[in-house]
Design goal:
alpha+beta, 5-stranded antiparallel sheet
Length: 197
């Protein structure tokens, strides 16, 4: 019976060697594996660690010096561009000029434009005006923050320090009329655009 066991033991080792040719044969000969003579390759480390490249990277950038582990900090900053969106809630499509307006030399439109402005710029925003119809020599545009006089080519007003969502902006107009303008109904003479400051 002992003889059978002795015969069976070498066969088992032989079958194990056939299942894993490289490792079993080296082990049976008493030789060291080839990897013992050299440092492990990156691919071997990743396979052994299950592909934990993040752990490897963190370990490699946190060396141990004089028994104390160094810790690093990463500062992340993001640049958010200034954005401003203006929505015209109400504005006349036309401007009516009467004989009395011509005799006076100007026509006033109180709260002519109602806007809602959304801006992420703490500095404020700019409203540009473009003349669409040459019926005035200048125009005074007023808001709750003040007023500005623009020429016949238009111009811009600055709303400083105003930012947030759906900020109301109400504009009133005083158009100083050109001498050649007669009474009648005209298309609204100004186009506007809102942009960041």
């Amino acid at each position: 019976m002992d003889e059978k066991r002795q015969r069976h033991a070498p066969n088992t080792a032989h079958h194990a060697a056939r299942g894993r040719p490289g490792a079993a044969e080296t082990h049976l000969r008493g030789e060291k594996p080839a990897t013992a003579d050299r440092p492990p390759k990156l691919g071997e480390i990743l396979v052994a660690q299950g592909g934990a490249m993040t752990t490897l990277a963190v370990t490699s950038i946190m060396p141990d010096v004089n028994g104390a582990a160094l810790q690093g900090q990463i500062a992340v900053s993001a640049y958010v561009p200034a954005q401003t969106i203006g929505k015209v809630v109400q504005q006349p499509a036309e401007l009516t000029i009467t004989d009395a307006d011509i005799a006076r030399g100007y026509v006033e439109v109180l709260v002519g434009s109602e806007l809602r402005v959304t801006s992420n710029n703490p500095a404020g925003y700019v409203v540009d005006f473009f003349n669409r119809l040459p019926i005035f020599t200048s125009v005074r545009i007023s808001s709750t923050d003040g007023s500005a006089d623009l020429g016949p080519d238009g111009g811009a007003i600055i709303e400083r320090g105003r930012h947030g969502r759906d900020i109301p902006l109400n504009l009133s107009y005083r158009f100083n009329l050109s001498a050649s303008v007669g009474p009648g109904t005209y298309a609204w003479p100004l186009a506007l655009n809102v942009r960041p400051l």
